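Example record

The entry below shows one chain as it appears in the dataset: sequence first, then structure tokens.
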Amino acid sequence: MERTNPADGRVLRAEGLCKSYGKQQVLLDLNLTIEPGCIYGLIGRNGAGKTTLLSILTGQNTMDAGKVTYGGEPVWENPRALSELCFARELNATAETAQISVKEYLYAGQLFCPHWDKAMADSLIEKFGIDRKKRIAKLSKGQMSMVTITAALASKAPITILDEPAAGLDVIMREKFYRMLLEEYAATGRTFLVSTHIIEEASGVFERVIVLDEGHIIADRPTEELIDEFRYVSGEKTALDAALAGHGVQPLQVQELGAHKMAAVRGDARLFAALADDPALTVAGMNLQNVFVALCGHGDEEG
């Protein structure tokens, strides 16, 4: 899939974002640009600041410093900018909305989302087999995820942000969700930003991936380009250590089993070709989940 040319009027931009809760700094001078016509994935460890970032981007949370703009206009308390954004959070039984019915929840979406597609919302709720009269609090976790997904897709917002949309779904429903997301993207060219812990299943959907770690964005790249920067290199410990040192490479993560050692390495095609030419070593590709662990594991051994 090709990304459309950025249009200044449809760009969501964060500059110099800082956010703390008490003494804990959550976001540290963070910069991010969300351009139109792309499916972004946001990944990070628990507590990395993903939900905080998303809530600030959509004007639902304050920042200590920095600014967020959409089309060059501030997002905060700006109805024109906010009308173009949808932030679909994971529902739970203790939320303020939990005591209203599914029908009332979707009606609220219709009131607050000027691009709302009622026919789509009705169709998805019917497809998911959800009772419109049932209170949110009485839904299963999976059904809550389905309602969240329905609201996000039916919002038709030019920039639609979903926070852990598939958390309550089984593997079959997760596949259906990603298929629906791709179909909607292909039909409309809407921008989607999806935060998820289920990385490998979603990696084929993300055109671009943003990695958030300890309040900083440490990667913001086209997904395949990012993955291609990493390899697993393995071999006898002494031989592997000597080869990596000879190329000036510091491994991101290592795993040892007896005299055998495997290292996650970041580099380019020339480095990987040189390592692959060494008969004492084996070089293998990594997937997005492997890359995430290497970047955010901070040297911890893999389990």
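Notes for this example: The radius of gyration is 22 Å. Residues 1-7 have pLDDT under 50 and may be disordered.
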